[in-house]
Amino acid sequence: MEEKQYLIEDEGITLSDLLQVLFGRKILLLIVTLSLFIISTLGILFYNSRKQTYSSIFEYNLSGFQNNEYLDGTRFDVRDLITLEKLNEYKESSSILSNLDMEKIYYKNAIMSFKYEKLYVKNEQKINKDDVDYLLDKEGFRIVLDKKLFTKEEAQALVELVAKEPVKLTKEKIEKVNYTRDLLLYNQSKIYDLSINYLENQYYTLINNYSKLINEFGDLVISDSEKISDRSRMLQEYFQNYSFASLRNELNQFGYVKDFENYESTLLSTKESLTLEKKYNSLLKDELIEQRKQLIQLAGSMYSVELTSYNEKIISLSTRILEIDKELELLEKKLNHISRVSDTDPSRDETYVLSLESFEQRLDQIYQKLTIETEQYTTLAKEVVNNNSFLYFDNNSVVVVENPISRVKYIVIAFFCSLLIGLIVNLCVDFKKLTREYRRANK
After folding, report:
1. Residues 6+ apart with CB under 8 A from 240
2. How far apart are CA 132 and CA 123, in angstroms?
3. Contacts of 77 (CB under 8 A, 6+ apart)
4. Taking Cα atoms as reference points, which of 162, 223, 218 lies closest to residue 388?
5. pTM summary value
6. The pLDDT of residue 65
7. Please, what is the average pLDDT of the chain?
8. Does 166 have pLDDT greater than 80?
9. Which residue stretches of 244-259 are H helix?
C-alpha cells in the first residue's frame, strides 16, 4: 500500500491528465469557442467596413513627374494637387462633387495616400515553385481615398480631376516659359565680352531644350517629314560657321570697346572687389598658418595632432589667391588697353572702324538668327507639349479595397484564438483535477 502511494506522489502531471482537463468539458469548450469566434468575426467585419478605401492607379508619359519636376523646370509635388484650395477648385468644376465637404475631407485626411510607386502584377506565367508570385510591371501614381466620405461616383470624379491636373498645369506652364532671357541681356549689354557670352548661352539653351524635348516625347515628325532632331542639327550646322571662340579671339586681338566710360568703370569696380577679396584671403591664410604652427608646437609633433582641416583651408585659400592674381592681371591689361585707345582716339583709325563694324555686323547676324530660332522653338515646344502630354487613366479603375487583413486569414486566426481561449477556460474550471490531492483521491 505504501509503495502504491509513493508511485502516485512521484508520477506528477502527465500529458493524459492535461488533455483530459483541456478537452473534458466539450460543451463548455464549444460554447466559449463559438461565442468568441462569432463576436470577433462580426467585430472585424465592422472594423473592415469602416476601413474600406477607394484605390486608383494612373500614369503619365511625362517622365519629369517621377523626378518631381515639370517640363519648365519648376517643382512638381503631389501634395500641391490636394491642397484645400485645389480641392475647392475641383468641387467648383464638377457638379458630381457639389455635395462634398472639402474642408472635412482635407482636415480628416480622407485622401489617405498619394504617391509614386512601383506597380506589381501577378505572375500568370509562374511554372516552377521558385518563380516569384509578382512581377514588376511598371511605375505609376497611386491615390487612396477613405470610403466613408465618398460615393464611388464622387471618388471617380475627384480622382480623375486630380490625375488630369499635372497635365493641365504642364500645358499652362509651357505657355508662360520665356526662352529669350539671354537675348534680352544681350540688348542691354555694354560690353562685347558679355554680349558674346549671352549669345552663346542662348545657342546652347536651344540645343539643350531640343534634346530635352526629344528625350521626353521622342523624335517626332513635325512637318513635311522634318523631325525635331533635324531642327537641332540645322541650328548646329549654321553655327559651325559662326564660332564664338573666333569672335572672342578677334575681340582680344583688336580690343574692341563698346562703351569706354561704362566699360572702364566696370573693370575698375571688379578690380577693387578682387583686390579686397585677395587681401582678406591672405590675412585669413596667414592666421590659419599661425594657428597650425602653434598647434604643432603645443603637441610637440606633427603626428600627434589632427591638421587636415587647417591644411585643406590653407590650400583652398592659396588656390583662390592665385586665381585672383590671374584675373587681376587680365583686368590690368584691359585697363591699359582702354588707356591707350582713349589716347589715340580709334574713331580716326579707318582700319579699326571697319573691322569693328564687321564685328558688330556678325554679332547682329547671330542675334537675328537666334531670335528667329527661339521663336520657332517656342512655337514648336508649345505644340508638342499640348498635343503629346498624356494621362493613362481608366475611370473604372477606382476600386474598393479592404485595408487591414483578408477575411480568410482572419477567420483562421480568429478560430484558433477562440479555441485557445476556450481551452484556457476549461483549464481554469477544472484546474483542481491537476492537483496532487485530487489525483491521490481518484487513483
Report:
1. none
2. 7
3. 68
4. 218
5. 0.59
6. 82
7. 80
8. yes
9. 244-254
Distance CA 225, CA 382 (A): 19
Query: Would you list the domain boundaries of the chain?
Result: 2-50+405-441, 52-177, 181-388
CA proximity to 193, closest of 249, 128, 118, 133: 249
Q: Which uninterrupted H or E stretch holds 75?
A: none
Q: Is 141 in contact with 78 (CB distance < 8 Å)?
A: yes
Per-residue pLDDT for 1 more than 50? no
pLDDT digits 0-9 by tens, 365-402: 999 999 999 999 999 999 999 998 888 776 666 766 55
Task: Give Cβ neighbours of residue 109 (< 8 Å, ≥ 6 apart).
Answer: 146
Looking only at the bridges linking them, the beta strands covering 226-227 and 391-392 are: unpaired
What distance separates the 2 farthest-apart alpha carbons in the chain?
144
Read out DSSP for 140-198?
A: EEEEEEEGGG--HHHHHHHHHHHHHHHHHHHHHHHHH----HHHHHHHH---HHHHHHH
User: Is the pLDDT reported for residue 4 higher than 60?
Assistant: no
pLDDT band at 7 (very low <50, low <70, confident <90, very high): very low
Three-point CA angle 350, 356, 360, nearest 5°: 145
**Band of the pLDDT at 186, cuts 50, 70, 90?**
very high
Amino acid at residue number 245:
A
Distances (CA, A) of 253 to 242, 355, 366: 17, 11, 20
Does pLDDT of 231 surpass 50? yes
How far apart CA 320 and CA 417 sit, in angstroms, is 74
For 356, half-sphere exposure in the C-beta direction (CA atoms, 13 angstrom radius) is 15
What is 262-284 written as a DSSP string? HHHHHHHHHHHHHHHHHHHHHHH
Q: Among 321, 326, 74, 72, which Cα is nearest to 179's?
A: 72
SS (H, E, C) 78-129: HHHHCCHHHHHHHHHHCHHHCCCCHHHHHHCCCEEEEEEEEEEEECCCCCCC
Cα–Cα dist 59/66, whole Å = 10
User: 43-59 as b/e, with b when 16 or more CB fall inside 10 Å?
Assistant: ebeeebeeeebbbbbbb
Q: Is the pLDDT higher at 364 or at 437? A: 364
Of 51-60, 113-122, 297-306, the range with the lowest mean pLDDT is 297-306
75 pLDDT more than 60: yes
3-state secondary structure of 51: coil
Q: Which residues pair with 113 in a beta bridge?
A: 144
